[in-house]
Amino acid sequence: MATIRDVARLANVSVATVSNALNNPEKVGPVLLARVRAAVDKLGYAPDAAARSLRKGSSGLLGMIVGDITNPFFSELFQAIELAAAARGFSVLLCNSNETTEREEAHLRTLRSQRIDGLILAPTGTASMNRAALLAALEIPVVLVDRAMEGLGYDAVVLNNHRAAYEATSHAIGCGHRRIAMINGPGAVRTAADRLQGYREALLAAGLAVDPALIRDAGFREQSAYEAALALLRDDHKPTAIFTANNLMTIGVLRATAELGLNCPDDISIIGIDDLPWAEAVSPRLTMVAQPVRAMGETALDLLAQRMAGTRLGSGTTTVLEPRLMVRNSCAAPKAMAL
Amino acid sequence: MATIRDVARLANVSVATVSNALNNPEKVGPVLLARVRAAVDKLGYAPDAAARSLRKGSSGLLGMIVGDITNPFFSELFQAIELAAAARGFSVLLCNSNETTEREEAHLRTLRSQRIDGLILAPTGTASMNRAALLAALEIPVVLVDRAMEGLGYDAVVLNNHRAAYEATSHAIGCGHRRIAMINGPGAVRTAADRLQGYREALLAAGLAVDPALIRDAGFREQSAYEAALALLRDDHKPTAIFTANNLMTIGVLRATAELGLNCPDDISIIGIDDLPWAEAVSPRLTMVAQPVRAMGETALDLLAQRMAGTRLGSGTTTVLEPRLMVRNSCAAPKAMAL
DNA sequence: AGCCATTATTATAACGTTTCAATTTAGTGA
DNA sequence: TCACTAAATTGAAACGTTATAATAATGGCT
């Protein structure tokens, strides 16, 4: 593999000139520039990122940690972020924490060794002292996505979770539902807490009571949501609609209704947060509250870039993005509606 | 950020000893070992990957290029590969080519600069001279996944595409179908060609004619598959079953049938290659031919590791993995069957 | 023509590791 | 106790860049 010295020799210039020709073309004369470029082409020279990183003190690498890349929300988010990063000359090291704190911390360690210039973190679960320490040890800008973490001073980009839940619940109410169950994430997670609050307020605003029996914590997991939905739907006094707080849990609920042979939306209405790429492909088409995933990724990367460039200072702020209700067919008027 | 010198100073040993303590613990005495470890802990020292890479000539980084990380097949594949790589001490730089050759080549270039130690490539589209040159310039082991590329001498891990299509088609025939359409990828891609061949042979083996009007090329894309299905289903002499050659196209077909108000499987049966995480969640549950994604990732990484370690030599070979038919409900006996 | 102010070019010192060869220390047998 | 071998420790070179400071070349003015 050709080095910068080979290029310099071939172009008959100094290595400094080659470096300049590549990084500050305006600083080198036209004839040498041409000679260097020709030599670079002929040798197929590609600068060694490690050497550059060592000398410059910055690697051109960003880290991104997500809980589950298999989740369409995260894979779309990564797609948006990688695109935005590439446009700015950064590569992204994607890490899958599998929703466990250990792997998240392990990844944090390797990212530190890689001397990443910035980190996009979708924190798994709840706060952890250890994690906070590892993040601080990174000594680089961090932007949180999807879930904010209070008190650490990081920028964050999150959905207006309250509004998302409020709109979903209101839509169900508008369809004529009175008993609306909510399958939520763990109460300790801020995102889940906000969504619960939005659900409650929508109910209250419509003059409906909040029935604790209709609120289940399924930890944002599909299997638990499946079980919760099964329990809910087997109950004598079952709900006419189920509102799920994320895409995985929506799938779990779908599975439960299919298994029970229930027809949606005739027997049970379903509405969830997080749009799915195939929401329009199934019957009934799924009514969902979509997150602006692309905008989320772009905003996060923008914030990160500003921090890295030093054009943004001070304590982090939380950017709140608005959800969009995608009205389709899975949430409709209950068939056997008691008027 | 602490360097190895800081550790050496604190532990009162030479930098060489610190390096050895970290990389070849057996080569350093117990008391110094302990001193070094204590110092490392106290300083929170993490070796600089760039410096190490520069000196050792290997980066500990693997590259992985996929066409669309949003596709569940690829995100599961990445998950498996990242896990296997981490177990061997490698990090993975994931690149999304968005199915375009330009971005794929751009990624190839940055991966080269990063001096990755190995590459997992899911090549987009057909062969390209330029790509072949870029790959060769990498001068590192490459393992192809999902699609083999003939004549370049790389190892590859692929599905037994012929068998997958054969089984899918046979299953449809077994259900009583006689007019089975196939929505396929571009004929120029080996994967698509093999699947077509499997479809044909299954038909022939059952004594059925191959009707060219029932075979459509939708380029492995959802939208094209949607359009193809629409055309197919509006025809007077329409098929009773549709076989799709990948997951995206299955979604497209689903959308088309939903739009036409057709009931699956009563009006139209559907069977496709690539399982989907939500195949059991929708009604009807989708009958699909699953790829052994996890095994694929592990095999690919294994091959790559062997090449990198130099324990595997010679020209590359293609490992063929077997599909698994997941019989569910979307492919059933045609209702109005002309006997 | 001669001087000064730019502008182009270059030599060289880092950056933080690993590794080789050299040195020191410890251990053995006579 | 001494030579000799093996094991432990270390000094210093090298990896391929970039950036700084120094030098060389250019051009504009009197």
Please specify the SSE layout and strand pairing.
2 copies of one chain form a homodimer.
Chain A: H1 4-11, H2 15-23, H3 30-43, H4 49-56, E1 61-66, H5 72-87, E2 91-96, H6 101-113, E3 118-121, H7 129-138, E4 142-145, E5 155-159, H8 161-174, E6 180-184, H9 190-205, E7 215-217, H10 222-234, E8 241-244, H11 247-259, E9 269-273, E10 287-290, H12 293-309, E11 318-321, E12 324-326
Helix pairs in contact in A: 1-2, 1-3, 2-3, 5-12, 6-7, 8-9, 10-11
Chain A binds a DNA duplex (30 and 30 nucleotides) through residues 3-5, 13-17, 19-20, 23, 27-29, 32, 47-57.
Report on this model:
- Two copies of one chain form a homodimer.
- Chain A is of the alpha/beta class and 339 residues long.
- Chain A has twelve helices and twelve strands.
- Chain A has helices spanning 4-11, 15-23, 30-43, 49-56, 72-87, 101-113, 129-138, 161-174, 190-205, 222-234, 247-259, 293-309; strands spanning 61-66, 91-96, 118-121, 142-145, 155-159, 180-184, 215-217, 241-244, 269-273, 287-290, 318-321, 324-326.
- A six-stranded parallel sheet of chain A has the order 2-1-3-4-5-11, with helices on both faces. A six-stranded mixed sheet of chain A has the order 7-6-8-9-10-12, with helices on both faces.
- In chain A, helix 6 (101-113) packs parallel to helix 7.
- The longest helix of chain A is centred in the C-terminal third of the chain and has 17 residues, at 293-309.
- The first copy, chain A, is elongated.
- The termini of chain A are far apart.
- At the A-B interface, helix 4, helix 5, strand 2, helix 6 and helix 11 of A face helix 4, helix 5, strand 2, helix 6 and helix 11 of B.
- Chain A binds a DNA duplex (30 and 30 nucleotides) through residues 3-5, 13-17, 19-20, 23, 27-29, 32, 47-57.
